[in-house]
Amino acid sequence: MIEVILVDDHAILRDGLKTMIGQEEDMKVIGEATGAAQLKTMLPNLQPAVVIMDINMPETNGIELTKWIKAKYPEIKVIVLTMYKDDEYFMAAIREGASGYLLKDSPSEEVISAIRLVSQGESVIPPTMTKKLLSLHHANNKEEDNSLTPREMEVLLGLVEGLSNKEIADRLFISDKTVKIHMSNIFKKLNVKSRSQALIYAVQHKLVPLL
Fold first, then answer.
1. Distance CA 177, CA 163 (A)
2. For 117, which of 78, 108, 110, 178 is 20 to 30 Å away at the CA?
3. In this structure, what are the phi and psi dihedrals at residue 116, rounded to the nearest 5 degrees?
4. Contact 53, 5 (CB under 8 A)
5. Per residue in 45-75, pLDDT tens?
């Protein structure tokens, strides 16, 4: 059973999410909070798999609260559910450890799917926000992971740009099979299990400049 806590100062939204989640057999809402202070009193006693929160809340905003949760309870996955499409909010949430970023107008099935995916260690970014992510440039303060070979860095850059394995292979003049081998090595070295997780890791650790 995937246990969820909802954090939002709007009761109507919490009620809607609680009803939606309650219709699923494999998940349930175990707590609700209107803001950071209330959530912080809950977590020592309740250990949810997933926290779903808004960004704009009283006391502490969702980005700062995400940072606090990941520092104190790194095993808890955070999904930011917000009306903001701003690049600044999106990048800040991802960098502070959010596993998912969804807009409040997302279909209900997308929210339910996101809860399942992040509880399994996946990361969820809607296509519209992925395009924004790829439009940003973070050349300043770029950090490189010395464990990745130059070729693996090239493959990782192709992944971040949204290229398929075949497109990466064509760009680098190597076979699809070789790309798969490089991708497998990247996943192992970065300790991730999917392309979306590798993308999130690359962004959070500034491994590649995003063009």
1. 15
2. 178
3. -65, -45
4. no
5. 998 999 999 988 877 888 999 999 999 999 9
